[in-house]
Amino acid sequence: xxxxVIFDENKCKGCELCTTVCPVKIVVMDKERINVKGYHPATxxxxxxxxxxxxxxxxxxxxxxxxxxx
Length: 70
Prior knowledge:
It is built from 2 helices and 4 strands; from the N terminus they run E-H-E-E-H-E. The chain is an alpha+beta fold. It has a single domain (3-69), classed as Alpha-Beta Plaits (2-Layer Sandwich), CATH 3.30.70. The strands form 2 sheets. A two-stranded antiparallel sheet has the order 1-4.
C-alpha cells in the first residue's frame, strides 16, 4: 500500500528517531534546511517508496508526523 508522509517541519526537533524505524529507509534529516527552532527537520527522500506503515509517526515524541494511505 502506498502512502504519503507529512511533517510539521517547524515543530521537528531533529531527534532522528523517525529515521531509525523506517523499514524502507526513506526518512532522512534535511541537512539543507533549518526550521524555526534551529534544527534540521526530517523529510522523505523518495515518497513513492513509502509503504504507509506509520512507524515514523508512532515513534515521534512530538507528534509532528502524519501518514496518509493512498
